[in-house]
Amino acid sequence: MLILYRIYQILVMLPVLTVATILTAIIAIIGSALGLGRSWGYYCPRLWAKLFCAMTFVRVKVSGRENISKGQSYVFVANHQGAYDIFAIYGYLNHQFRWMMKKALEKIPLVGYSCRVIGQIYVDNSSPAAIRRTMAAAKKQLSQGMSVVVFPEGSRSRDGKVGRFKKGAYALAMEFDLPVAPITIDGAFDVMPRTAILPHWGTIKLTIHPPIHPGTDGHDLRELIDGSRSAILSALPTQ
């Protein structure tokens, strides 16, 4: 069965998804040029992400959507198990958002440029001035009622376990007094860990936890990091 699956991936899935990725990037660029980047920059990639899951026979189950409100800006923070975290969240969160992404991803031909024009936020920590530009880009998106999604671990897990959370994502929530909504991703590591070249069929579970709202004096950084990490761990097998 696995051999047939790999043949299908090489002969059918990879060509189709390559064309779909190029078309999605081009459509997003055209939409942005027409002033439609806000909607086209979300709904087109959302369909693209669902296509990735469908063609690799990956099922995504979501619980906790009732914990978030349409039209409210959030800083979503999620554990990062593998590449399919992106497709699962993009396709199935059902909430307008932009990613906070590593600046190195901007170098991907066509895709990197399309991400920039639709408002994805490239994180540049190379200098104080670069950090200010990153914060300004985030502020622009958040002030328009958009949410952002961040992987506070910074990179994909090497063993499927949750690593240390960096504080960068939480600085946004503190700066703009926004609720932080933790998301647990479970199953993406089995579908495609960082060492894999091709994915495997499977099921990914997304658990959207109740947001952590700022108090009267705003957020406490340590409590915010620890609270969101605990929430994420609560929906995972024992770490």
Descriptive overview:
This protein is an alpha/beta fold. The chain has helices at 2-33, 37-55, 84-92, 111-117, 128-142, 168-176, 188-191, 221-234; strands spanning 58-63, 75-78, 97-102, 121-123, 147-150, 180-186, 202-208. It has a seven-stranded mixed sheet, sandwiched between helices. Helix 4 (111-117) links the parallel strand 3 and strand 4. The mean pLDDT is 91.
Question: Notable features of this structure?
Answer:
single chain; 239 residues; alpha/beta; Glycerol-3-phosphate (1)-acyltransferase; seven-stranded mixed β-sheet; 8 helices; 7 strands; 15% strand; globular
| CATH architecture descriptor name | 3-Layer(aba) Sandwich
Strand order of the largest sheet: 1-7-6-2-5-3-4
Terminal CA distance reads 31 Å
Q: What is the CATH superfamily label?
A: Glycerol-3-phosphate (1)-acyltransferase
Show the helix and strand layout:
Layout lengths: L1 H32 L3 H19 L2 E6 L11 E4 L5 H9 L4 E6 L8 H7 L3 E3 L4 H15 L4 E4 L17 H9 L3 E7 L1 H4 L10 E7 L12 H14 L5
Parallel strand pairs: 1-7, 2-5, 2-6, 3-4, 3-5
Antiparallel strand pairs: 6-7
Helix pairs in contact: 1-2, 1-4, 2-3
